[in-house]
DNA sequence: ATAGGGTTAG
């Protein structure tokens, strides 16, 4: 009596009949066809087929058994477990079955198990590997960057006389390139008798991923000279090389070629295009590609979101992230979250930052340390240095980046002593500081006015740690000495530094010259800056303020006419505040905000109250920032004041955090906000370019310049 | 019956 079982395709009720006769070719083909019938089988179906195979005896039909295992490993981890169970019950598996199970381990990101299996295969099973064995194993080595094992496998390949197999050669190139040994990869490539599209692509990809983008593009030229055409995969590597080089022209050419060819813009290729465009700063083109993608996975979303972040367009990044969470079926992964946290830090969106913090726990994201590091950075840049400390304290393991984030965060909050204390603890913990650490340390000294400590750390960095100071370190020193009023000493550092000082360095000196009324050095710094950055409106303003303080009106007029002649306008100050998860932006004297009427009424109210409390607007400097007609009104309408008024309007209590872009809090606003905090009983935190200013009860936490 | 090259961060 024949056995009946229903096929797994539920709307196809045709029963398949199988008689338990072993060596019948016809019947064995039935099972075999069944296994070939669908590309993807679920566990239930597989188990049914497996059961039938045992009952009918087809379990001994090797091709069918291989197919069964092959189907099983193409599923999830349950499938792999099932496959290895079947495998373990197979007596004397042949090489084909071995190859299949080894591939299963590699494809499930278990390269170590694959290698152990291979050793078993050689030693226990005494089975000789063939040309199908090594591609999977080498792919595993490439995955886990197992250079040592990879080289051993290369030895085996030679021993088993398989060196001139095209597939093996390709995976050898991939393995060596993944492990960073481009010379060996190239050596394999050069020795090859024939090279197809895939071979070229794997060598090009090797250069691209090892940060040799020029070599990648050069090799592509050779590939074309040899008459091989690129395909989608080649294009992905080429685009990533263009992204690294920020070579928009080349990138556009590739995009054009893709459009003119019959290549399909799949997620992979689309993401590579998005990445290329964002790295080249062409966000609109990137977004266009992104919007036209038929389906978007996490990687595509992450590429677009971090593209916005890298181009300082965090508001758009967060808008897109919210769309991803609400309107797509894709779950943010570690990389998405890293970008989003950095966006939260940029715009000061503490609410969303907290949501993301909770999400990390809820989603059970891996890559724990970098996420915690990012959280530290986010909290400290959103004004919550206390929470940042707590996270740091709770971390079971910390790396250099964790310590750097903590030191930089403390420095940003003007907590110089605490930052230096943290640096000491870091050394006690045996963590080797790097160049970034010293940027944190030196900027902590600079914000805390700790001149001697700063100089000592600068020396130690060179002598004790052997870290050669970069431009940024000299910048910190110039800033440190300048802020402390040691202008000549700052100048000495500029003279001594082995590289050409950049705008930031002359800018630090110039700002200090304004504070300490040093016309001579100020002129010198400004002249350097006007050469380096003729478009920088701040320079003209600072210089004219320096002259104005000394009542050199002729010079003031000269600077202003120069500015006018060059067609440079002062970029308006911009501040933002997040209320109920929405970031609101204000420009100086601006009326662009939908509720600006109310905000200006509030500002009038605030000004009245401040006057009663004895506030007199300080206008001697700022009035020169702006065109004559705007003078009177604009002083009291600085963007940070508008943002603060919005906060007073919209929130009942708590801490307001105002983020300023491209500016420092000016003297006038500083004294005004001190009073607001007292009169309105609010804690206000203002974050400007370089630091936080916490205002409470008429006092400010920061100590410099005021 | 079994095999190869690819995208997001730092």
UniProtKB/TrEMBL annotation:
PPR repeats lie at residues 196-230, 297-327, 399-433. InterPro entries: DYW_dom, E_motif, PPR_At4g14850-like_plant, PPR_rpt, TPR-like_helical_dom_sf. Keywords: Repeat. It comes from the Eukaryota. One of its GO terms (molecular function) is RNA binding. Residues 614-706 form the DYW domain. One of its GO terms (biological process) is RNA modification. PANTHER family: PENTATRICOPEPTIDE REPEAT-CONTAINING PROTEIN. NCBIfam families: PPR. Belongs to the PPR family. PCMP-H subfamily. This is DYW domain-containing protein. It comes from Tetracentron sinense (Spur-leaf).
């Amino acid at each position: 009596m024949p056995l009946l079982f229903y096929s797994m395709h539920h709307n196809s009720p045709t029963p398949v009949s199988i008689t338990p006769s072993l060596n019948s070719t016809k019947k064995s083909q039935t099972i075999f066809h069944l296994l070939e019938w669908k590309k993807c089988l679920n566990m239930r179906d597989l188990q049914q087929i497996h059961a039938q195979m045992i009952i009918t005896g087809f379990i001994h039909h090797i091709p069918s058994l291989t197919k069964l295992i092959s189907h099983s490993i193409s599923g999830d981890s349950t499938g792999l477990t099932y496959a290895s169970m079947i495998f373990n019950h197979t007596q004397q598996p042949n090489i084909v079955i071995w190859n299949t199970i080894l591939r299963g381990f590699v494809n499930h990101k278990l390269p170590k198990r694959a290698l152990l299996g291979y050793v078993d295969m050689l030693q226990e099973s005494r089975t000789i590997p063939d040309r199908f064995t090594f591609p999977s194993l080498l792919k595993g080595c490439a995955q886990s960057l197992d250079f040592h094992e990879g080289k051993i496998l290369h030895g085996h390949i030679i021993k088993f006389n398989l060196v001139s197999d095209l597939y093996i050669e390709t995976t050898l190139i991939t393995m060596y390139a993944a492990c960073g040994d481009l010379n060996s990869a190239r050596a394999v490539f050069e020795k090859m008798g024939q090279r197809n599209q895939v071979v070229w692509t794997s060598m090009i990809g090797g250069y691209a991923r090892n940060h040799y983008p020029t070599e990648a593009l050069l090799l592509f030229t050779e590939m074309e000279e040899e008459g091989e055409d690129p395909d989608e995969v080649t294009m992905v590597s080429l685009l990533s090389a263009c992204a690294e080089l920020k070579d928009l022209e080349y990138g556009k050419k590739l995009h054009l070629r893709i459009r003119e060819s019959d290549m399909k813009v799949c997620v992979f290729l689309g993401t590579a295009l998005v990445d290329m465009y964002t790295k080249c700063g062409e966000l609109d083109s990137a977004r266009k590609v992104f919007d036209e993608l038929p389906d978007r996975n996490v990687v595509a979303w992450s590429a677009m979101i971090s593209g916005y972040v890298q181009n300082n367009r965090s508001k758009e990044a967060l808008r897109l992230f919210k769309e991803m969470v609400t309107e797509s079926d894709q779950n943010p992964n570690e990389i998405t979250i890293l970008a989003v946290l950095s966006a939260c830090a940029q715009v000061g969106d503490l609410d969303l930052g907290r949501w993301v913090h909770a999400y990390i726990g809820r989603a059970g994201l891996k890559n724990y340390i970098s996420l915690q590091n990012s959280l530290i950075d986010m909290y400290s840049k959103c004004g919550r240095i206390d929470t940042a400390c707590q996270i740091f304290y709770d971390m079971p393991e910390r790396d250099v980046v964790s310590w750097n984030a903590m030191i930089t965060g403390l420095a940003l909050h003007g907590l110089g002593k605490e930052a230096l204390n943290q640096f000491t603890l870091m050394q006690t913990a045996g963590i080797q500081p790097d160049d970034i650490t010293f940027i944190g340390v030196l900027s902590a000294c600079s914000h805390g006015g700790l001149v001697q400590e700063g100089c000592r750390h600068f020396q130690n960095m060179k002598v004790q740690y052997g870290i050669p100071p970069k431009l940024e370190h000299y910048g910190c020193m110039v800033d440190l000495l300048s802020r402390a009023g040691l202008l000549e000493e700052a100048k000495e550092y500029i003279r001594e530094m082995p590289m050409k000082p950049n705008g930031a360095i002359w800018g630090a000196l110039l700002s200090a010259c304004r504070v300490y009324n040093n016309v001579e050095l100020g002129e010198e710094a400004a002249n350097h800056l006007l050469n380096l950055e003729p478009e920088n409106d701040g320079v003209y303003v600072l210089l004219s303020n320096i002259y104005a303080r000394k009542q050199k009106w002729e010079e003031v007029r000269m600077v202003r006419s120069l500015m006018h002649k060059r067609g440079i306008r002062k970029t308006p100050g911009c501040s933002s505040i997040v209320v109920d998860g929405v970031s609101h932006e204000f420009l100086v004297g601006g009326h662009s905000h939908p509720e600006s009427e109310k905000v200006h009424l509030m500002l009038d109210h605030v000004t009245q109250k401040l006057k009663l409390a004895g506030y007199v607007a300080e206008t001697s400097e700022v009035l020169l920032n702006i065109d004559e007609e705007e003078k009177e009104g604009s002083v009291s309408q600085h963007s940070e004041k508008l943002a603060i008024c919005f906060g007073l309007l919209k929130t009942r209590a708590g801490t307001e955090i105002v983020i300023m872009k491209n500016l420092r809090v000016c003297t006038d606003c500083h004294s005004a906000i001190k009073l607001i905090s007292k009169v309105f009983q609010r804690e206000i935190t203002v974050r400007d370019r370089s630091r936080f200013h916490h205002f409470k009860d008429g006092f400010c936490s920061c100590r410099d310049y005021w």
